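FAQ

Q: What does a record look like?
A: Structure on top, sequence underneath. For example:
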């Protein structure tokens, strides 16, 4: 039976002397949980983890778009769509999009994630031409006016190609590079980093009845297979970011299980990205009905993820999340 290793991270100030660095960052771990299908987790010393897994858990990650992966970064969300669940219709005009990009940058976003197709549950697909029309001008303007790293949130090679030409530097695909067979070769040919996200089903039907044997381990296996496929196609591990895909074909319990054990994904040897901002499960748990009232819950999830060593947090509320991170890092790491 396959074993999966979920490190138990603590800040360096609280770690025992023999603790190891988690992904080359400021967190340490001296113990891990062994997760197995149909078995209770077992707690072991880090020294009992197989050497190849331990190497991937501890190795420093290469920078992504110039961002040092030894500390957490905020990826600001910029949806140039009429129908995104939180910011739909607000940034369709390129001038408004650039103004929001500037605000997100000033608030502390390291990367701006620009998307032209909503992938919220039930969303209808968008033709490539329309998606290109939405994202191309804003990306060109953001890169030329702000010089800020941009990722393109798309499932389509035609859209990604035009976005890269306009200055985007990372391809973020919520289908985990399974939707368009041309997207992997494009990423390899351009030598750009990618974010490979797990989703079960497509946006129109994914929330109908998602099912897993063990959501954490099923998602891990999917991401591992996609990382292996990307490496085989010429995208090295150092350029791959992994994301468990909160809300994409997941129930409330699935989302919570993934968040609780998110540190297991460090064993893939890639930076981990999390996108939970303002999503429906936060409303379900807190009673916050509209997306824009889910900021406190979103910040709580981002802080939890950062405490587990997640390197990139995809958020709408950059300023609020940054403030929470500043306090957390001052208390736990003595950074003032
Ligand atoms: N979530 C959304 C879109 N893109 N990309 C990654 N890597 N991870 C995510 O969790 C993720 C994502 C959905 O959120 P949003 O963009 O705010 O809404 P919409 O899909 O309605 O545009």
């Amino acid at each position: 039976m396959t074993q999966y290793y979920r490190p138990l991270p603590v800040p360096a100030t609280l770690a025992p002397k023999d603790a190891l660095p988690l992904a080359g960052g400021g967190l340490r771990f001296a113990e891990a949980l062994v997760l197995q299908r149909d078995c209770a987790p077992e707690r072991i010393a880090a020294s009992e983890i197989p050497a190849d897994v331990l190497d991937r858990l501890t190795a420093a990650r290469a920078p992504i778009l110039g961002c040092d992966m030894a500390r957490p970064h905020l990826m600001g969300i910029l949806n140039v769509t009429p129908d995104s669940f939180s910011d739909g219709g607000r940034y369709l005009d390129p001038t408004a999009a650039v103004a929001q990009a500037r605000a997100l940058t000033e608030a502390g976003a390291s990367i701006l994630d620009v998307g032209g197709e909503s992938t919220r549950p039930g969303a209808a697909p968008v033709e490539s031409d329309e998606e290109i029309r939405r994202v191309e001008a804003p990306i060109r303007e953001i890169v030329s006016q702000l010089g800020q790293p941009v990722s393109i949130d798309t499932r389509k090679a035609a859209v990604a190609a035009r976005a890269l030409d306009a200055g985007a530097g990372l391809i973020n695909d919520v289908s985990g590079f399974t939707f368009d067979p041309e997207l992997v070769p494009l990423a390899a040919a351009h030598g750009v980093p990618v974010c490979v996200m797990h989703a079960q089903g497509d946006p129109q039907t994914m929330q109908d009845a998602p099912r897993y044997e063990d959501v954490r381990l099923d998602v891990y296996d999917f991401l591992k297979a996609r990382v292996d496929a990307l490496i085989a196609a010429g995208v090295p591990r150092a350029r791959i970011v992994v994301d468990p895909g909160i809300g994409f074909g997941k129930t409330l319990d699935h989302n919570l299980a993934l968040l609780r054990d998110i540190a297991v994904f460090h064993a893939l040897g890639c930076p981990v990205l999390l996108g939970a901002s303002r999503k429906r499960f936060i409303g379900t748990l807190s009673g916050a009905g509209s997306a824009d009232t889910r900021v406190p819950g979103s910040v709580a999830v981002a802080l939890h993820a950062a405490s587990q060593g997640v390197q990139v947090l995809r958020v709408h509320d950059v300023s609020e999340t940054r403030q929470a991170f500043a306090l957390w890092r001052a208390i736990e790491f003595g950074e003032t």
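Q: Is there anything notable about this one?
A: The longest strand covers residues 73-79.
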